[in-house]
Amino acid sequence: MTFLLGWKDVLRPIRDGYRHLFPAPDTGPTPEERQRQRAVDQLKGFTYFDTFEQLQMWTEGESDPLQRSNTPLLVRSVSRRDGLGKANILFCHDYAGNYHDYEGVSNTGLDEEEYACGYMQFVETFIYFSHKLVCVPPPTWTNTLHRNGVKALGTILIEPQTLGSEKLLQHGDDGLSFPFARKLAVMAKHYGFDGWLVNIEKPFPTASWDADILKAFLTQLKSDLGTEKQLIWYDALTTSNKVSYQNSLSASNLPFAKACGSILTNYCWKENDAANSLHEALRENLSLQRIYFGIDVWAQNTTKVSHPRITYPEYGGGGTNTGVAVAKLAELGLSAGVFAPAWTFEHFPRHGRDVERTMWEGEELPEAISCSCGDCGKRHRANSAMPLVGFARQYSAGSDAFFFTDFSRAFSTHDDREKHVLFGGLTVHAQLGSQSILPLNGASVTSPTLQHRLEDIPGRTQLVVETHNSLLSSAKDTTSSNRYWVLPLFKLDMPAHRPLQLRISFRDLTDGNLCFYATVSGTKHLFTAHNTQNNCVLNATIRAAPSSKLHPRLEELGVYVNAFEAKSTVRLAEVDSICIQRVTAEVSLQSHDTYSIYNIRTAALGEGDTRHLRLCWSHASSGRPVEGIPFSDVTGPFSYFALHIDGVDLGRSYAVEHILSADLVDQIAKREVSAEIRGIGFDGQVLASASTMLQF
Question: Could you list the residue ranges forming a coiled coil in this record (predicted)?
Answer without folding.
Answer: none
